[in-house]
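Hi all, posting the design record for the shared folder.

TITLE: backbone redesign
STEP: 1 of 1
STRUCTURE INPUT:
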């Protein structure tokens, strides 16, 4: 279902994520974006899909990204500097959030404007809850990225909360859908921030984009 990495690639990734990873700034408007001087990747996903938990698990830090049971906690583009070689951008969750429609529309516009116009953006990782599969809002984002010719990959989250047969069923359905989307990476990666499943491979994927 996912790629194979050599021991050397896994070790390089381990060292990168064991090093410094610092919160840099929160961006509420495009004019606040940092200079495009380093490759960057972005985490996108519906509200409460587990983005912040996954960022924390990847970096081995419990409070690097703020987590909350209230959907919509991340309200800006949060930039993290990973070892001086890669920006990781934690984006506002789309879809359901306990905020006004106006604020939700503003977040959505910020996300889309950023994704369409950032020259150093290497890849968008769309996080999908393994219990629910793709939703209409996910497909909408995928179509937008197809149009913008921005590469994206699907990361399954919370795989520890579903049975193996159900995970396989959801995975097969998503993989079939990816074939219809030109900018999508054809394979998905199952992860669990709670159990640590898939994190080593995910770190290696991310490290491959670092300068």
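Okay, here is what came back for every position:
SEQUENCE:
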């Amino acid at each position: 279902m996912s790629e194979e990495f050599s021991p050397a690639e896994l070790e390089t990734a381990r060292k990168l994520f064991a090093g410094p990873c610092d919160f840099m700034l929160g961006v509420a408007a495009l004019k606040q974006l940092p200079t495009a001087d380093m490759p960057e990747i972005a985490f996108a996903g519906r509200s409460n899909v587990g983005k912040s938990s996954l960022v924390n698990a990847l970096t081995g830090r419990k409070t690097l990204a703020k987590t909350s049971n209230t959907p919509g906690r991340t309200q800006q583009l949060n930039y993290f500097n990973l070892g001086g070689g890669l920006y990781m951008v934690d984006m506002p969750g789309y879809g359901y959030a306990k905020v006004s429609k106006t604020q939700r529309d503003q977040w959505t516009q910020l996300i889309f404007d950023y994704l369409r116009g950032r020259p150093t953006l290497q890849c968008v990782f769309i996080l999908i809850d393994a219990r629910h599969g793709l939703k209409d809002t996910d497909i909408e984002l995928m179509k937008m990225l197809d149009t913008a010719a921005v590469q994206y990959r699907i990361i399954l989250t919370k795989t520890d909360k579903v049975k193996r047969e159900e995970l396989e069923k959801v995975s097969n359905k998503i993989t079939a859908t990816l074939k219809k989307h030109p900018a999508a990476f054809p394979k998905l990666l199952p992860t669990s921030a709670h159990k640590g499943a898939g994190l080593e491979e995910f770190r290696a994927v991310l490290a491959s984009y670092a300068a």
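COMMENT: The chain has one domain: 7-207.
Let me know if anyone wants the other runs.
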